[in-house]
Give the backbone structure.
Amino acid sequence: MTRIYLIRHAEAEGNLFRRVHGRYDSGVTANGQRQIGALSDRFRYITVDAAYASDLRRTQQTAQAVVVPHGLSLNIDPELGEIDLGEFEDRTFGDFVYHNGEQFRQFVTCSPDFAPAGGETFAQVAQRVSRAILRIARAHPDQTVAIFSHGTAIQCFQAALRGVHPADNTELGHPQNTSVSCYELDQGKLSIVFENDISHLPPELDTMTRQRRHGRQATAWFKPLEDDQDWDLYTLAREEAWREVHGSLRGYDGPGFLSEARDQWFLDRRAVQLVMSEDQVVGLLHLATGREATEGIGHVSFLYVAPQCRRHGLGIQVLGQAIFTYRSMGRKILRLRCAPDNLPAQTLYRSAGLVRVGTAPGADGELDILELAL
């Protein structure tokens, strides 16, 4: 008899920043690393003879929970990879919902009609992943194997095991980060021991619990500024943010901020973006795309969410847009400045893994310089 542990990767950037990451090769978040620690504790006294992961970083990072303490080598199998979402890869969920609402509905319901251009159907994923898991299990008779894969890939396999399409597999929900399922292959028959268990995760590490704790989650999409009305919004947002941080407009250089933003936007439309939720403007993102470009640094000049739209998960998505915009430009470091006593902003940035690397003078004292390796 062969025992198979099928494990979803830890919390990854797509989960945190609410982006569509199927085949996009995103990494594990800071909270994901803590989940990996909890997973390692779970498998400390479980014998594992071999380990496999997809060809994406997030599964390979998660697999370290098993391969390191057990002294195993990690086998890479591309057939264990996540669904290829083709034209929708690395778009925000907000963008997907707003511009392709029907296809988004098909995606979240695992509809047989979902067929993204350049991507895969759920049936194709089910066939691919099932083939890989059975092939791996047969290669390890009377051993225990840990297999690290992805949420939709696992969901499709679990449906195929029951002989149904994923859309008709109402028995199980979507596997959560680091969820563990166990199967046994005996005399050619695959049986279920348990599925989608996260008992090793305390609530403060569980991704879904953390997201529910923040209440209703809005989704964002982004577009460049287009006209004078948009630039009026930029000015108003800058004023409001300055007044909120400093208590007044003393020292505020509105014309200077506006001139800098316009100059950068003229050279690169990605430099200043409106943050949208459905049809509503909910914030602004200003990236100094030309600053220290040759050094591989991407500067965030201004990140803003309107007061009435805060506490709905938008700030982390705006930060994610900055991260993935700069990553697509080949930058290696994200850098920004933040007042030490701006606790909401500090909490947001630290949750995404930014660390303090120094200080710089500000209008009312020293500012923290925060960085994230991209």
In short: The first helix runs from residue 13 to 17. DSSP finds twelve helices and 13 strands in the chain. The mean pLDDT is 95. The two ends are 44 Å apart (CA to CA).
